[in-house]
């Protein structure tokens, strides 16, 4: 892959589309095990990201991701803001100075993002958070040392579906304990949209 | 010499302002800044608002910060890291009672270290 700033913008644009289209769905998931604002939070955050990206020129992937990260941290409002923000910030640091990001560096960036989310949320895999989507995706990409659209989408999708069976021990859903079981984790669903959008961006390039 | 500054972070603009009001009213000589809600007053926390609040009250003596819910903590930690300021401390204490105690201590000219100790002892 040769991932450029234009592709990075395309990724954010497609992610925004999915989030806006599924805003109510995401909030309804959060209603079941949280405070019901996840769709509103993400839609507000990505709306602001699109505004920012549309009004500036970017030469480097790192700049696109950094700008997106900062915007999400200030506009999302909920836990997902600092978490997705940290993820993109770590990714931007990993690709700093590169006009075209190759597979190897992209995989490293994803690894750093996952480490960043874990550190920020003080959470691990199996606690019914977005980590349960990020971790398997990163693991798969790491094994292959390439970012392949089909694998990316499938891995994210099945990981997202698997969060249904987990009992939450982190985030607001943890207050529900056993009752959090049987519901998808909202942040895992929006993480799936993010990866599905990335898959589309990569396919468009192929 | 200035006193340690205080930042109150809440998901609600009103809650943060309210806590600042209580503390201001009872304790003078201490800079307290509220960072509540989002820019448009909606519920949540904003990195930008928190950073601005820290910078507003920051001085040589340092700043102690209080937060309400888990996601506020994440944004607060983020803000401290990004500003790269020394002597900013995020306290693990009830947001109102903690801010009040810290303000009392700060008004007596206590150092950040002493205030953190007092908070740890009390909560
Ligand atoms: N400590 C944490 N570590 C990792 N992810 C978390 C953590 N807390 C919450 N999340 C993720 O954030 C999502 C909730 O986001 P959102 O509703 O926007 O924030 P809030 O919980 O503050 O209302 C959860 O579904 C979960 O995936
Ligand atoms: Mg929520």
Structural domain count of chain A:
1
Overall number of strands of chain A: 0
Q: Find the CATH superfamily of chain B.
A: Phosphotransferase system, mannose-type IIA component
The CATH architecture of chain B would be 3-Layer(aba) Sandwich
Q: Give the name of the CATH architecture of chain A.
A: Alpha Horseshoe
The most extensive interface, with participating residues per chain, is: A-B, 21 and 17 residues
User: What are the segments of chain A in which pLDDT stays under 50 over at least 5 consecutive residues?
Assistant: none
User: Whole-number average pLDDT of chain B?
Assistant: 95
The proportion of strand residues of chain B reads: 5-15%
DSSP strand tally of chain B:
4
- Trace the largest sheet of chain B across and list its strands: 2-1-3-4
CATH fold-level assignment of chain A = Serine Threonine Protein Phosphatase 5, Tetratricopeptide repeat
What global shape of chain A is seen? globular
Helix content of chain B: 40-55%
**SSE sequence of chain A, one letter per element:** HHHHHHHHH
Q: Provide the CATH top-level class of chain A.
A: Mainly Alpha
Structural class category of chain A: mainly alpha
Oligomeric state of this protein: heterodimer
How is this fold's topology laid out?
The complex is a heterodimer of chains A (206) and B (123).
Chain A: H1 5-21, H2 23-33, H3 38-54, H4 61-75, H5 80-94, H6 103-121, H7 131-144, H8 149-162, H9 186-205
Helix pairs in contact in A: 1-3, 1-4, 1-9, 2-3, 2-9, 3-4, 4-5, 5-6, 6-7, 7-8, 7-9, 8-9
Chain B: E1 5-10, H1 13-26, E2 32-36, H2 47-57, E3 63-66, H3 70-83, E4 88-90, H4 95-107, H5 112-122
Parallel strand pairs in B: 1-2, 1-3, 3-4
Helix pairs in contact in B: 1-4, 2-3, 4-5
Bound molecules: adenosine-5'-diphosphate and magnesium ion.
Adenosine-5'-diphosphate (ADP) is lined by residues 30, 34-35, 37-38, 41, 78-80, 83, 117, 121, 123, 129-131, 170-172, 185-188 of chain A.
